[in-house]
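Follow-up to my post from last week.
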Amino acid sequence: MLTTSEERLALLRHQVREWAAEVRPFALEVDRDPSLATGLLHLPTVALAARVQIPPPYNDRPLSIKGEVFHITGALERAVWCEEVAWGDLGIGLASPGASMCGVLVEALGSEAQKRRFYGDLLERPTWTMFALTEPHTGSDPASLASTFSRSDTGGIRLDGTKRFVSNAVRARFGAVFARTGPGPYHIRAALVDTSLPGYRAEPIPTIGVRAAQLGSVTLESVELSEEHMLGSGLSSLRRGLWGWSRVLDRLRPTVAAMAVGLARAAYEYVCEHRAEPSREDAARLARMAHEIDAVRHLTLSAAAAVDRNQENGHLASVAKLRAARLAVSVTRAAPAFFGAGGRIEHPLLDKYARDALAFEFMEGSQNVQRLAVAGALTRGTLDPGAPVG
Amino acid sequence: MTSGERPALTRSVQQAVHDTARREGPTAALSALYEAIGRDTPVRGPGGHALVPEGVRHDAADTAVLPGIDGLGLLPLRGPTAPDAPAREPGPEGGPIGPAAWAEALTWLRLGLSVKILDEALGYLRDRVTGGSPLLTRQLIKGALADAVALQLQVRSVLDAHAPGDVPRPLSAGLNAMVTQADRMLLPLLGASGFTTEGPGRVAHASELLVDTYFTIAQEGTDLC
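User reply:
Got it. Predicted complex:
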């Protein structure tokens, strides 16, 4: 058994990187035809994604590497997993089955019965899930959510609304859907919705990047639910409402930052591998890229560790997401130019990386939302640039 | 004008290409440019690559697949370095205009596309309400808009200050870097709507492909990170 968390994480990183390399040859093919994403269960990271990120009490088949057991439920383990998976291919990583964002919400707000059913279904067979928050006219601003939970004629709960930019919306078997029970921040709830229910309809939205994830729009028309679908019923309205699940998003943010680092690293390593004998100037630029990638990885891992120590430490995750998204965009845009004019045409994987990186501009909160979060933490005094990071 | 190079496009043609780009997007603008120079075969960049509207005659075997511009009616063509492509003379030499005039025309075209992205961003930000007010009223948004518009106007002022055909190719490259920078400031303001194939993100992507095809990094003068 390994004694330090660093050794455990190094073991995890090394193994996931090896597996993620097997994904790379499929990246362009699935980018061209996103429907192929569900046929990749023979790839280790795709198959494993289906059964990791499930907490110990509910998972008797966690990931085991050289005798070390990983559930990939902590922010730090998630960050390492996600960086390597995104390095293999971000689109296919996001298109993988498993608990993903929905799982984190169920873990935080779900009842014992909901957790048993949700995780049990995931372990029974590879299952795609979704996280439906964003709406057509208001984006991901929770205060402006227009979807509603209301009393149905039969005494149950009726769900109506429209969602947009939901990853895996078309292929998900179930997922979390956010709506309001009334006005104000305490009346925002989430429900675990089975996509086979009458009234649920999903259609793909063709996108420029991360095409494998097949973002979709979801229409919910009189979807009949019951109390057992509602998440957080046993919790206070504060904990199950906006405040509660914004903490969940804080826990997820370092993993989004880690994906951005993984993508940047993929582009950087591609250049190093394919650019024969770079000029002195190019070599200097590549060295700067490498330093920047390392720096943002340190920041991201610090943010993940901070969230693991205390879920209230979400502000550093916003800092990491801010820097990592910028890193991914700038590195992937600069990479094709190392090959001269026509770099994107000659190296379509680099063209894909540049398109994929655009997703980080809005994934898990826009860059402006992160800026405001960082500025808010600074003015409240919860973020002190003079103190050790993390 | 270098020896053997044909006369540049007139200002009215440059302006028309810009306006077509702003109104109708990259494919219509490139088609207008090909029509203006009277050419129906690909104009190739320094590496032999080309980005052409569908009507331009080309060898189908040269066509590359870049899903980011699917549905736009633009075709990326590989250069002579591709193993299965026959060698050919790079650059638009032999066509009705020379490389410098082509680069200048592309600058007008890409500036028009950038203004198109700005137009669409303004519409989106006016309509999008969060916290009870349009996004357009937010300081962070207004700041980014102002920076982008300032860059666009800077490019326009340089183009206006030069007679048609007087913009040296390296200057065009620098101006294109500024256009790219403006686009990159605008795109994030559109949120996920800038990420759909129907949205302005695809226009920005096509515009970056034009730069990638017809300029080299040294000419573009961009910096990393």
